[in-house]
């Protein structure tokens, strides 16, 4: 009887709309079994970011009118948008507060960032999505985290190359997609879409804890959502592309007065693997948005865009492809001359739109073997610029950020 009264007392105590006992049960479920985790935060203002000296200076924030630039840019790719989204994708490997802080430094002061994380290890699910909302509410960026180096489940997701059908009227009804990528997108999709619905209704996507607000509704924003961007690196790039296809081909997102698909301005991916077979890619190419506004950026000889390998079955890219070409052979000679004491003067690369999409490597062993050899030999100065066909180093998100940084912009910190 005493234990029963104790349980009833705890159930009666409340934190907002939930009782203390309910919060304890939810917390225990999250810690013990995984599931869906949704933290959020609001970025600091510029005075908080710069407690000493002038609040704003030339170069800080990185882009003074970033919200306006994102909301009003119609033609893509855009160099500012590409730099901002590459930086966002790179920092998605961090936590919510860090992503929000970096986006504030770029120009989205006091943005709201909400993170959706779902993990079910036996199902190879390790899905993390960040939704960044500008202070006024006009702009939102949906960013998916890529493969975490320390997450064995993430690597199993990448290796889960079995295909599954995606029934969205993509031409050939036999079109198939990468099962691991598809499963991970769906793990957080409905929570992401629910938050986007809030943004469309001029509401903040942040949901404060009951102890902060006594259970009141989320605060409202000045404007409703006008422009949405989707981005990601590596596995996150694959999930970004997959989510884009869903938004453009599911009728519930493309009809009605609250049409979500029409708000999507562009999808920028970095180091993206292929997500579907040739029939799927062909169906995507028949959609004007998927053909022209899905922009894939590849840094030189990044191995990941060549995956999955041909030995696992046919896969194919869709959308527009931009590759950063580095004159590796010329730079290799310069490196050797420099090592011998002569003048060295290697050259940076240039971005070029490719006429044909990147193809698959023959086998996983061939692609990873050459990429591994490249990784080891690049640690030796005279061999640093040898022209290997595949590279692990080139897949690093920092390469994408640096290569897409516009002239005159120092770094993402603004210092």
TrEMBL record:
InterPro entries per UniProt: AB_hydrolase_fold (IPR029058), Fungal_lipase-type (IPR002921), Sec_MonoDiacylglyc_Lipase (IPR051218)
Gene3D superfamilies: alpha/beta hydrolase
GO biological process: lipid metabolic process
SUPFAM superfamilies: alpha/beta-Hydrolases
Ranges of residues in domain Fungal lipase-type: 142-310
Protein name, entry field: Fungal lipase-type domain-containing protein
């Amino acid at each position: 009887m005493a234990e029963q009264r104790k349980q009833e007392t705890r159930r009666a105590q409340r934190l907002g709309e939930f009782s203390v006992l309910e919060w304890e049960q939810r917390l225990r479920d999250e810690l013990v079994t995984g599931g869906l985790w949704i933290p959020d935060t609001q970025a600091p203002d510029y005075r908080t970011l710069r407690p000493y000296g002038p609040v704003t200076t030339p170069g800080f924030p990185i882009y003074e009118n970033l919200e306006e630039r994102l909301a009003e840019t119609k033609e893509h790719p855009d160099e500012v948008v590409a730099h901002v989204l590459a930086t966002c994708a790179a920092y998605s490997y961090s936590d919510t507060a860090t992503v929000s802080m970096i986006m504030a430094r770029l120009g989205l002061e006091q943005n709201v960032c909400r993170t959706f994380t779902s993990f079910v290890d036996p199902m190879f699910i390790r899905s993390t999505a960040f939704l960044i909302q500008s202070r006024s509410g006009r702009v939102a960026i949906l960013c998916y985290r890529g493969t975490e180096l320390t997450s064995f489940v993430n690597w199993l997701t990448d290796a889960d190359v079995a295909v599954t059908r995606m029934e969205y009227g993509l031409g050939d009804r036999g079109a198939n997609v990468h099962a691991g990528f598809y499963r991970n997108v769906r793990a957080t999709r409905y929570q992401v879409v629910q938050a986007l619905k809030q943004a469309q209704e001029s509401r903040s996507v942040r949901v404060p804890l009951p102890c902060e607000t006594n259970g009141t509704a989320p605060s409202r924003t000045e404007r409703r959502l006008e422009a949405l961007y989707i981005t990601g690196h590596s596995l996150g790039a694959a999930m970004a592309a997959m989510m884009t296809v869903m938004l453009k081909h599911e009728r519930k997102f493309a009809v009605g007065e609250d049409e979500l698909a029409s708000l999507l301005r562009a999808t920028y991916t970095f180091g993206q693997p292929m997500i579907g077979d040739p029939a799927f890619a062909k169906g995507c190419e028949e959609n004007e948005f998927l053909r022209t506004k899905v922009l894939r950026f590849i840094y030189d000889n990044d191995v990941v865009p060549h995956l999955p390998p041909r030995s696992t079955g046919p896969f194919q890219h869709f959308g527009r492809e931009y590759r950063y070409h580095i004159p590796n052979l010329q730079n290799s000679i310069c490196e050797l001359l420099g090592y011998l004491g002569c003048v060295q003067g290697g050259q940076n690369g240039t971005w070029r739109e490719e006429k044909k999409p990147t193809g698959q490597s023959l086998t996983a062993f061939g692609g990873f073997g050459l990429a591994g050899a490249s990784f080891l030999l690049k640690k030796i100065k005279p061999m640093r610029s040898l022209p290997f066909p595949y590279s692990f180093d080139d897949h690093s998100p920092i390469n994408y950020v640096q290569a897409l940084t516009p002239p005159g912009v120092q770094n993402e910190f603004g210092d």
